[in-house]
Input
Amino acid sequence: MCLAVPGKIVSIVEDEQPHLRRGKVDFGGVLKEVCLAYTPEAAIGDYVLVHVGFALNRIDEDEAHRILDTFREMDELAQAQAEAGGDTAEPEQARPETGGDGS
Amino acid sequence: MKYIDEYRDPARVRAAAESIRRRVTRPWTIMEVCGGQTHTIVKTGLQDLLPPEVTLVHGPGCPVCVTPVELIDKAVAIALHSGVIFTSFGDMLRVPGSSKSLFDAKADGADVRIVYSPLDALKLARNNPDREVVFFAVGFETTAPANAMVVWQAEREGLTNFSVLVAHVLVPPALEAVLNSPDCRVNGFIAAGHVCTVMGWREYEPIAKKYGVPIVVTGFEPVDLLEGIDMLIAQLESGRAEVGNQYRRAVRRDGNRPAQERIAEVFEISDRAWRGIGEIPASGLRLRERYRAWDAGTKFAVDVHGVRESEECIAGMVLQGLKRPAECPAFGTRCTPETPLGAPMVSSEGACAAYYLYGKRVQTDVPAASSEQ
Output
């Protein structure tokens, strides 16, 4: 029920009435009309999280990459250690906690 | 698809699981609140990647599952009214009422239609002025902005042949209900990311403080869930109980203000019964006085009597994380998605459906590892 899917805004129809702001969103090749009333800041090219026909938020690209880069680097480090025969060695400490309060 | 595939990347999943393994020293029980997260966990076997100290239990975050049987009976009765087009998300149709589901009503001749969005129901009302169009407005905070918008629009347009049967529930009171249970063994919560996309996480801060439990707002993909668990373990191991945000790409502390404003304009908070759990104070939404003309619950005078639940179904225990689906004697035999005894077996967010679909039937026990925590 709370499923929300990220998609890219490809066109926007502005309306004098803000609650009618809508646009076409591309979900991996499938285009759907989406209500953009709750994301007045979203522009063409932005990714938005869509739930039952409504965009709930614009996706923050920088934040999206942060977690991906962290884990990619960690995995590469672990693979390198394994190849160097250091697979039994524990790193000095677990990775620092990310996220924090995010405020 | 962008923002999905990369969060399922095996290398990143491996790294995230490894981070948890290095950090954990003691047993911890973590509840994921949202049924969508339950499905990711069971489908991808995330529990098997975790160290034995970490136990995941599944929470009440399935709006379809907690909609009271009286309301399902009412929906069926309204759908059977002549001239009504009854619209709903597909999930609700198979949910068993006392004697009938909406699917059964459809088989009996009712005009029951599945819609993708409440906007589709609104469109049906505009295009069928001689019919009464009812939408089953089920959901948590994630769905409330959509349902609030269609009622608000119907009022503006004077669309009097449209109404909604409201079955809205709220997450924070449910967390408190879980924490207040004497059998509660939950040490930390994975909060539902999309609920928080709308609401932010301010309302979770007093809960974390009052009960001394960390809560981390988390996304829905495997890498998200493992990072959320990692952030919870980090807090638990160092004795902290704060609200964290793993799902930073989609959630801000204040949530979506325009959406919250529209919800508050159309809905007000009310007490609510949760199927299998019972009454939880201030845990639901109902239409404000101004919008009562669009309330299908009062518009259609239907008498619901003889409300009956399956005696065998343990959905209430499953929804509170007290039992695993396969501990139910009816699981997979007398209760299947085709012939369900309870809603968690049919909802796309139901824990029973997840275990049935993804073959975790053999895991019958709830590990007692952290019951003394």
Observations:
- Chain B touches chain A through 73 residues (CB under 8 Å).
- Residues 315-357 of chain B form one domain.
- Residues 361-373 of chain B have pLDDT under 50 and may be disordered.
- The radius of gyration of chain B is 21 Å.
